[in-house]
Amino acid sequence: PAELKPSEGAQACVTTADSLAAKGHDQEAVKLLLRARQLDPKQPQVAHRLAVLYDRHGSDKQALREYETALQEAPKNADLLNDLGFFHYQRESWTEAERYFHTALKQSPDNQRVLTNLALTYAKQGNFEASREMFTRAVGPAAAHSNLGVLYAQAGRHEDANRELRQALAIDPSLTQANAILAHLTAHQESPPLR
Fold first, then answer.
1. CA 126 to CA 131: how far, in whole Å?
2. Between 13 and which of 36, 149, 150, 159 could a Cys-Cys bridge form, CB atoms 3.0 to 4.6 Å apart?
């Protein structure tokens, strides 16, 4: 068979890298993506893929460098902006995370992943009302109350968690997670402290 053109070889590397990354073989995927870049420096979304893989393994400098390259290639890509926002979210850089999530929403206003990540970012900053609004847009009112109940519980605000979980169940009694967490919170509130 005829040899592959560099762009075809690069695409084959990217396709194989995606398959490897999906199976958790990130190091092999990185090698193939770097090979794709050698074969065809203009191969689209290589930088984005590399950024996510480096991010996944805590290689912050390499991830940021690749995110910056990816942004130059596709500054309006909502998925890229979301991933970069989540990079900052994981490092508790709330202002940066929020900025990228808002930029992503300008490109894709109904993107559920972006809305959810922005809701989480607001909650981490203590803005639970804005968090509820984003969760509602992303998953509807019942799931929004349930998610907020979980976040309140994680923050140790059990009274607020109870309220949110009860509101979630009033809207949709079939929410198993809300039922389980509410039962757990209730059991721990009613049992006397051990001595």
1. 9
2. 36
**Dihedral angle of Cα 92, 93, 95, 96, to the nearest 10 degrees:** -130
pLDDT confidence of residue 191: 47
Nearest of 159, 158, 126, 130 to residue 144 by alpha carbon = 130
CA distance 100 to 84: 7
Q: How many helices (H) and strands (E) would you count in the chain?
A: 11, 0
pLDDT at 37: 96
List the structure tokens of 123.
């909650």
Q: How far apart are CA 59 and CA 38, in angstroms?
A: 21
**pLDDT tens for each residue of 41-62:** 998 899 999 999 999 999 999 9
